[in-house]
Amino acid sequence: MNASDVVAELRRAASPEKALVLARFFKTGRGEYGEGDLFLGVMVPEQRKIAKSFLAGTEALTCRETLAEVLTLLGSAYHEERLTALLILVGLYNRSGDKDRERIYGFYLKNLKCVNNWDLVDLSAPNIVGAHLLGKDSALLFTLAGSDHLWTRRVAVLASFAFVRAGRFSETLSLAQRLLVDDREAHDLMHKAVGWMLREVGKRDQQVLEAFLDLHAARLPRTALRYAIERFAEPTRAKYLRCGR
94: domain CATH number? Predict the structure, then answer.
C-alpha cells in the first residue's frame, strides 16, 4: 500500500454532506483559524482503519521509504489526507526502534507547517514529540511555545501531555505560566489547550493543580480557568472562578 492507495481509500469513504459539516466545525471561513482548509468528509475512525491498513502493508519498507509516502500525504490540501498521514506516523513511531524513532521525530518537526489544525496537533504531538522527549531534555517544548505559529505553540502544550501521563507535571505547569500569565496568549484555542492540560494534571494530583491556581488563577483567561477546574467540587470551582479574570 502506498500514498496513492490511501488517497483512493479516503475518496471511497468520502461524504460531501459530512465535508460541509466538518468545514464549518473546523472554522474554514474567511478570517477563521482553519481558513481555506479542504475536507473530503471522512470521519476519524475510518481514517484510523486506513492508516492501520497502510502500516500493515508497509512492514517490508524501510522507515525512510515509509516517510516518503507519508510526506506525499502531508502535503495534501485535504485535511483528512494530512490527518491520516499523521496517524500513520504515530503508528510507525510506536513500532520502530530508537534510531528510526529519532528519524520520525525529526521528520515531524521538519514538517510542522503541515500540522495545521487542532485535531492534527492533538492526535500526533503527545505521541511523537512528547513521547520522544520523555527522559530527555524538554527545552524544545519551550522553544516551540515561543513560536509565532499558533499550531506550533499548541504542539508544545499537547506534547506535554506525555509528561503528565507519566506523572511529571513541571513542563505543563511551566508552559501554562509562560503562555497564559507571562506572554498573555490571546488565542482561545490555546486557552482551551492549556486549560485541558491543567485539568489532566488535576486528575492525577489535585493538590498540585490547586497550588498552581492559588498563584495564577487571577491572571488566567476565563476559558482556561474553566477548563482547568471542570472536575473540581462546586465550592472549590466557585472559589477559583471568583478570582479569575
Answer: 1.25.10.90
